[in-house]
Design goal:
single chain, alpha/beta, nine-stranded mixed beta sheet, 20 strands
Amino acid sequence: MMKWTIESGLTPEHIHCDAIFVPVTKTQTVEGGISEFWDPLLKDLEDSRLFDGTPHRTFVWPESFRGRTRLLLFIGCPEGILTAEQLRLVAAQAAKIGTKSGIRSAAIQIPRTMVSSMAEQTPRDAAQALTEGFILGSYRKSQYKRDASERTEIDEIVYYMKEKMDPAFEAHWAEGVSRGVAVGEGTCLARDLTNLPGNMLVPDDLAGKALQLAERYGMEAQILDEQELEEKGMGGLLAVGKGSIHPPRMIVIRYQGLNTWNDVIGLIGKGVTFDTGGVSLKRASGMEDMISDMGGAATVLGVMEALGRIRPKANVVMVIPSAENVMSGSAYKPGDIITTLSGRTIEVLNTDAEGRIVLADGVTYAKELGATRLIDVATLTGAVVSTLGDVATGAVTNDEAFLEELIASSRRAGEKIWPLPSYPEFWDKLKSEVADIRNQAGRDAGTITGGLFVGTFADGLPWVHFDIAGTAYLSKERGVDPRGGTGVLVRTITDWICKQS
């Protein structure tokens, strides 16, 4: 855990950290305006073409300071107005380089111009964006090598200004830091869970992680085991999980921020801890990435982590149907008919379209627990990767105004969502001759029909489906996101929930 402090009325000689991060624009390398201590150095660097403030470029300068060496890390910034996303990227760059340099503490100068010139940005927003960026950029996934070296972590960040902060500014900045820590740590929790190998995270393990989170923040939690699933009639989750020696679990956490349990937001995350495709077996190449098939569960748990820290005035019930989809003599098969908690029957055409089946029971159970608006998050279809790559999350809804609110939050959070249509013709593709609904509607419009399958179980309640199959797990780092689990949509959904309170 990083320690965060705010200081004002300081100049660089008062800073005792291992490094100082200095955001610089191209103009400032020529005209100055950063600091009387560094303006001459920056001009020399620009003249010698070593560093000119070009956005996303960095330059590390070792400085002798009181008998020891500290680092000056200059980070190129865009000219003019800085957006929240630009601030995140600047901070993430600084954190990545600082971590590689082995520093333990760092300071960042906050010129008033950096805040006052930002359109639609308050000091709180700026502080939140910078703090999120530092945390997200510092993230490194766990290693399991015998000779792995001990990781050096940045454990202290000091924000400072050479001017004296007025109390209101400092209070808003501190609030932003606190919010940024909450959202950043929630995202990193989701990344950690997504990156866990399948042999280290079976459904019961995921349930244990959820119980730990709930206990940490005093939330009510419930875990349904296979006997209780049978008693409740959750045939969808049971069917998907019955091929594994690791039985399925229905995982629930309730966060109550209002006096009465009404206007409840339901978050449902797909928790398939490993997916071989079952009898409809996947290809071997790339199957190792299916440790990320519980990315939706990781996202909603990350949101609950953030809510536990922020404590907004909202009611949220989180539901994770968790199973391992593997092939065995007891695995469910194409042609099977499954009866879900809702009473609807499903014709199974492909056992690799299992996520929507477990989500069917998850959505129904969230409604039973009082949810009046529903958001499900799932690594649902390969089709969304064909459409949007690993750049944007696909969305399907029965309530466009609801989705627009979430898209507005995604813009503030620096995440990309693309809405897909839900015309009646797409719903028709889900009709079955022998059951209420079938779990596959063919290759055409696969992301849409997969989402609409889940939406069927919303029974008309406002509902949004997010397909994160492309964005939950990256093959190489990009921006604030590392290679591997990204914790996608933790920032977006948390922002939206906080806007409701």
